[in-house]
Amino acid sequence: xxxxxxxxxxxxxxxxxxxxxxxxxxxxxxxxxxxxxxxxxxxxxxxxxxxxxxxxxxxxxxxxxxxxxxxxxxxxxxxxxxxxxxxxxxxxx
Length: 93
Fold this sequence. Notes:
It contains 4 helices and no strands. It is mostly helical. Helix 1 crosses helix 3. It is globular.
């Protein structure tokens, strides 16, 4: 869960202009295959994720669940596949 928190924190920090907090973690877990800090790729940018969830009290929990379970429709037509190892793997997605 520690890794999941770092990734969701990275998304939240992107909107504030703070440097991407977990670039190594994202690279290690291949998040960068579909996501970038400030541009849309296959998936939304970290900045877009942060902006869409800004001010939501449960954003960290919701994003962590979306990483583990996958999702579709919130950021466009391309679904995010589930990353089940993220919940138990310190180096999860």
